[in-house]
Amino acid sequence: MDNIKIDAILNEREARWHRVIQLSNEWEKPVIVGSVVMPGPDKNAPCAEIIFRELVEALKQLSKVWPLLHWEVLHGALGPAVILVLAQGDARLLKRAAVGIEESSVVGRLFDIDVYDEDGRPVSRTELGFSDRRCLVCGGPVSECRRSAKHTLNEVVGKIEEIIKVLLVKK
Predict the structure, then answer these.
(1) Is the pLDDT confidence value at 45 over 90?
(2) Neighbouring residues of 58: CB distance < 8 A, sequence distance ≥ 6
(3) Does the pLDDT of residue 130 top 90, yes or no?
(4) In Å, what is the CA distance from 71 to each residue of 27, 45, 65, 68, 84?
(5) b or e along 137-147 (b: 16 or more beta carbons within 10 Å of the residue's beta carbon)?
(6) Which residues contact 24 (CB under 8 A, 6 or more apart)?
(7) Separation CA 106–CA 164 (nearest Å)
(8) Model's pTM, two decimal places?
(9) Which of 110, 79, 91 is nearest to 32 (CA)?
(10) Average pLDDT in the 79-86 region?
(11) Packing angle between helix 46-65 and helix 153-170, nearest 10 degrees?
(12) pLDDT mean across residues, the chain
């Protein structure tokens, strides 16, 4: 990955975090950021848009439970993302709902749904008693596989393509 792409990704990450803080302050509610798990340099690959459409539909279900206060879609170097604020003040409850979405959908493992409390602090899966996310390829802890570069980009992308094929067959 060239330095220009890395800079764009890092700048966008920082801008996204500042947006979360801004919305947290504005609404005084937790903020949800839904994005696509897309390894490698091209975060906007065609399969990312397929996954993103599924993510958006899944997150719309939350607005059937809690009224939607804010919805915004982002496209950029980090790939597609959606930021939302619901009329629910309990970030831990929202994170439980997010984990439920990630674990119940055919492509949910390809969703990254982050929940930030009303002060902009992230709520982790583990602080709620959920296990760390699992590796797509081997099922081990994703943090260990990522840190050790245990799998090639082609292996991970191949697994993502398999998951998308299952999704398309079900439709």
Answers:
(1) no
(2) 34, 101, 105, 108, 111
(3) yes
(4) 12, 23, 15, 7, 5
(5) beeeebeebee
(6) 30, 31, 116, 117, 118, 119, 120
(7) 8
(8) 0.91
(9) 91
(10) 96
(11) 60
(12) 91
Distances (CA, A) of 37 to 49, 88, 102, 110: 11, 26, 11, 5
Residue 101 φ/ψ, nearest 5 degrees: -65, -45
Gap between the Cα atoms of 36 and 160, Å rounded: 11
Q: Do 163 and 109 meet the contact criterion of CB atoms below 8 Å apart?
A: yes
Question: Can you tell me the mean pLDDT for 142-166?
Answer: 90
C-alpha span between 93 and 74 (Å, rounded): 25
Supply 129's token pair. 């008693």
Least confident of 28-37, 40-49, 85-94: 40-49
Q: Which two tokens stand for residue 48?
A: 């990312």
pLDDT at 114 > cutoff 80: yes
Q: With 60 as the cut, is the pLDDT of residue 154 above it?
A: yes
Pairwise CA distance, residues 136 & 138, whole Å? 6
